[in-house]
Amino acid sequence: MVLKAPFMGQLGGVSSEHPLASVAGYRVLREGGNAVDAAVTVSLTLAVTQPHLGSLGGDFFALIFESSTGKVHCINSSGWSPKKLNCEFLRETGFNGIPVASPHAVVVPGLISGLQKIHERFGTFEFDELAKPSITLAEKGFPISYGLSKAIKRSCSKLTDTAVKNYFFKNGRPLEAGEILAQKQLAKVLRSIASDPRIFYEGWIAESLCEFLNSKGGVFEFDDFKDFEGEWVDPLRSAYRDFEVYEVPPNSQGAITLLMLNILENFDLRDLGLLEAKRIHFFVEAAKRAYLDKNQYLADPRFAEIPLEKILSKSHSKELAETIEEESVLLDVHLKPGDTTNFVVIDEWGNIVSAIQSIFHIFGSGLLDPETGILLNSRASYFNFSGPNRLEPRKRPLHTLSSVIAISEGRDEYLAVGTSGGDYRPQQHALLLTNFIDYGLDLQSAVELPRFLWNGDAKILIEEGFHGLDVLKRIGHQPIVQDYPSKTGVAHCGLRKGKVTMLSADIRGDGLPIGLIS
Q1: Is the pTM of this model over 0.85?
Q2: What are the pLDDT digits (tens) for 156-168?
Q3: Is 340 in the active site?
C-alpha cells in the first residue's frame, strides 16, 4: 500500500524535503525555466527552510542529465580545510581528532560556488531571479516544520552559542512547529549572492565568516575562501542489470554504491525474497566488503592514489561475491551517521538534476555567524589522523554525500535517486535501486518499502515488516527491529518514462513531490 501519494504528470516537476522548496522550484518550471534553473531555486530555498540539514554553510553535489546530448555531468562543490590546519597543529593544541562542535570541523562551504557553476553552464534565467523565493522566505519568515522543530529539541545540548540560540529559541524554549522563523541577516547575504555569488568567497561574507570562526579559535584566512571553486568532474559509471548507473566520484564515496551493486549482481535477488532474512544477509555481507574498500582507498584524489578501475571492475566484485557464505562475517568498520537534504528536478525537455546538500551532522558544527546568519558545517570532523583520509591543508575530506542517476534506454527509463544518511548512503542507494530494478516495484513503493541498514558491526537496524529474522541471529547477525517508519534516511526520487514523469517523496520526511501536467 502506498502511504504518500507520488506526483505523476507529463511536463516534469520537483521532489524535495520541504514543501516550500518544491513549490518554489515548480514555479520556475511553470514559468519556462529548465531543471537547473529550478534546482538553483530549490537549493537556496532549502538552505533557508532546512538550515539544520543543508544551510548556505554546507556543501553541494549534483548529477545533471542533459537530454539534448544524452550526457551525465557531475559537479563536486565540497569545501576544503584551511591551509593552516593540520594534524600536528591539532595535536599541539590537545586534540586527537576534530570535535564536531568546533571551528576546526568547518570547511569552506561549497554550496554557493556549486550553484553558480551549474547556473553558468546550464541556466537560462538570471541568478537574481532564481534567488528571490529564498530571499522572501528569509526576510518575512516561514512556519517551522515538524522536522525542524523536532531537530531543535533533540539538539538543545549542541545549540548553546548565543547566536544560534537567538535563531532557534524563543524565550529560552525551542521553536515549535508552526511558529515563524525569520532570518534577516541571511536575507542580506542572499541579496548579495543574488547580485554576484562570488561575494560569498571574495567579499564581505567571506570576511565575516573568517572573523567569526577565528574568534572561536579557528585558523581561516581570507584566501581559503577566495581560492575556492566548485569543480566539474567525470561521474562514475557502472552497468547494473540493464541500467547504466552514474554516481559521484571521490572525494565522495559514491563508488561504494556501485561496488555494492556489482557484488549483488552476482546473485539472483528475486530468489532471496523482497522482505526475507536471506536478502538482508546477502545485502549486508556485500556492504561489509564494499565498505572495507572505502576505508582502504577513498579520499580526496588530489592527495591520494585511488584504484577506481580495480574497485569498479566486475572481476573484483565477483571475487568479493564468492567470499559471501551462509554465515555472517564480523568486521570492525565504524560508520558515521549524518543528516542532509536531497532533491530531484525533471523538466519538460527531459533534463534531470539529482542533487544533495549538507552541513554533515544535524545543525553542523552548531556555530552560526551572527553577522551573516549562516550556520556552518562540521564536515572536517570526518578527517582521520592517518590513512588516505588524513587531514592535510586545503584537502577535502572523504565525503558521505552522493547522488544517483540510472538510465535504461531499452526500457526508456531515466531514474534519479537520492537520500540522507551519512555513511549509510551507499546502502540506501543500493536498496532503492534493487527495489526498483530487481523487484520491479513502482517508484513510490520502492521508497516506502521497509528498510534495513548495517551499522558497521554485527548490528542491523531493520524496520518492522521483514520475515524470518531468527535466521539472522543464528548466523551471527544482531537484528534490531524498529517501528515503521523509522530513521533510515529520507529519500526523494524521480522517474521519466516516455513522456510521463513520476516523483516520490519519503513517508519518513516532510517532503512534497509536485509538477506540471499541462
Answers
A1: yes
A2: 999 999 999 999 9
A3: yes
